[in-house]
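Review session, final week

We close the course with one last complete record, chosen because it touches almost every idea we covered. It is Energy-coupling factor transport system ATP-binding protein, a protein from Subtercola frigoramans with 900 residues. Go through it on your own first, then we will talk.
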Amino acid sequence: MEADSTGPAHCAPDARYPRGADLDVRGLTWRPFGRTEPILRGLDLRVRAGERVLITGPSGSGKSTLLRALAGVLGTTESGELSGLVLVDGDATAGHPAGIDEAAAASSVSVGLLLQDPVDALVAETVGRDTAFGLENLGVDRARMGARIAQTLDAVSFPYGTNHSSSQLSGGEAQRLALAGVLVMGPRLVLLDEPTSMLDPASAAAVREAVWATAAASGATLIVVEHQLAEWLPRITRLVVLGEGGEIVADGEASVTLVARRDALARAGVWVPGSAPPVPQQVSAALCRHGPVQQAKRANQFGDPVVSARKVGVTLQRATSFGQRGTTRGAAVPILADVSADIVAGEITAIVGPSGAGKSTFTALLAGLSNPSSGVVVWVGGGVEGPAERRPAGKRPAGTGTAGTGTAEQHPGRWSSRRLAERVGWVPQNAELAIVARTVRDDVLNTSVLLGHDIREAEHRVDALLDVLGLTELAAEDPHHLSGGELRRVALAGAVAHGPALLVLDEPTVGLDRHTWSAVAGVVVAAREAGVAVVVATHDPLLVQLADRVVRLESGRVVGRMSRFGPTPTETFPTEMSPTETTPTETTPTETTPTETSPTETSPTETSPTETFPTGTFPTGTFPTEKSPTEKSPTGTTRGPGTRAERAGFSFGFARRCGPLSLLAGGLLLLLGSLFITSIGQAIVGVIVLLAVAPLVLDLRSIRLRRLAPGLLAAASVAFSTWLLSPDQSLLAGVTAGLRIAFFVLPGVLLAGYIEPSSLGDHLGQLLHLPARPVIAATAALQQFSTLTEQWQQLQRVRRVRGLSAGRSPLSRASQFGSLTFALLVQSVRKAGRMAVAMDARGFSRLETPTLETSSHARTWAEPAYWTRGDTVLLVVVGFVASVPAVYGSVHGSVLGSVF
């Protein structure tokens, strides 16, 4: 590789790049199934090789849809009517141009697409393997991958090394990782969908520099979709504006177009640089007033604390499912430490800080969606007791606080679903999670109906909110068919419509044009005027200017505070509500990011002085420079736990260093051995030998009972059913059957837990020489199993805050389980579809399934696959254990049988 004078070496995968790609779009029209009107309508666009084009337009105008069409993945997983033609270098299949030799062609892909939601692009369990995915599909030699991966991650200012878990990233960090996965391939046509929308200013600037360097070094054609134009315009050669009907309303040289069409573009909602910033739309406070419960009980007065956090800390327990091997298994990662804040009625509190600082984690605590590992979050506002929890006169529980209720009732994280929904509205960073109904109007109305609000009043409020937020024409649409910006507005309307006392919003203005920003900001301000306590986690400086208080987080600690009103006096709580009280640890939402920098390295919250700022202004540059935690990145090929050097040795618990093929074979041997268990004697001896050998093979420190619970339940169920259905209801028959199941299920589950999806793909492809495409598809699907528990918890939180969680009756719980299972299935299918699009955009579609006439595409692998001495030892040991029941039965079965 040779470095170009305008960019780092990683930006020039091959010095023989002649140019970027020519693009020709003719009459492109797309109407997805379920939508009455097309998203794109007869669109024509021609882009010359090497151009840098910025596409903007109102929310829902089809910008993201256009990029998917240019990448050739529109309609891959969604159904609809598509017409027109998209040509890259005159070829509808986006092939390589003539003149590039085979080596250069193998080093690049014609089109690279960054999706709007970066989580959809994650296909491997570690950062290094995820970044290498595109290079593997292109057949890049393994020896060249390491340096390119490390340099690309460094160029986008990614804060962790290649062995960091890809599932433990914030939205902004996932966005940078997804961008690195695109840029590392050196595509000739780079398509970026809002690549800096979730980033803090410093990280966004680094990402833009990486994009410019890549385009300059390779000569790639660059097309960027963005709402915020100012930072992109200095190096953009052309501006294209889409209208609300999916047609092009402006197209030309960026500076000329902005001057000639300035007023028209501003009226269309474009963020025209130099224009006066938009002001919040005038929205009636009545649309956000407190609901019936707050009106019936003591209402919060302006300036009253509603919820308070005292010295809260959150420690995330790393997942112990697929992909968490070796010493990282079960490691605890600090997210927040000693964070305190008061959220006050009639005020907006902004939580700011760099990506991965813990903003989403903290707002989730304030919303009662999870409990802290240490410290306490308490509700100190009015209306703590709901109608169902009223106590008889004179009855007062022990430990009653100042509000007249028990302290347990003042922890929002312990409230029932109904009680939480009556008081809290929440918009997650991923707005799609907040959707609970099949149409936009039903979704917004849902919580009000569940809480028993007057239906006419609720419908009037919902219709008014939809009108304010520009969603009236979409009221009957399926929310899942909407754009990202439209989904955020639907989620906001659903969080406000039932009149909560606390409104918690996580990045509510990402992906919005000027008009929709004004509408969203208007609702936020109206909520404040209605006496609602509002919390926003945001990078948006205009939204921060509306705040009354600002809390800045870095590395999980408060490093700065600002207020329009001066310092807030420290709250005093009764003994039973002291900050030393701890509650059970819960996994934080997906937006949560564990930082690998210890929070103890930062000064505590109490040492941060509170600054004041006048109304209507927000000083800039008053906080410390944003820094992200760093981790040294290797410069060679990424190698995680389980590589040849580590597996060659022998020690107790050595199975965690064995390859996936031997682990799978070991489980199969135990299954075959269980077939020979026909008597209680064989079962007992087999289990005794199994327990004796277990410390040698398994890492007992990593075993978690919850992982064994399904297997134990299966063994108990088989034992019970065998006993019940046997002719004489033989207890020995039941115990034998149960032990037979336990003999192979429990150790099989533990062995399978050591299998990493990427490692499994390596071994199936390299050792067994299976076709690459089905192998990678299977391992990518297996990777998603490790996130099912997290997705389940996300769905539980959404339903809890929307009032949909089950009651205590078995029937209600069974119904809730079925509902969550169906929702998880739907979400998994939708995520799999988006993931397939992301994989195809990174070269996966180039792999061919072999036939009699053709061979598979020459895919390479970032890590080698070996069969080591440890794998052989594992099979020998497990084979010995599996043979014990058969051997014992043939030699001593009759003797022990006579005893029993």
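Two points worth writing down before the exam:
The longest strand covers residues 305-317.
The mean pLDDT is 77.
Good luck, everyone.
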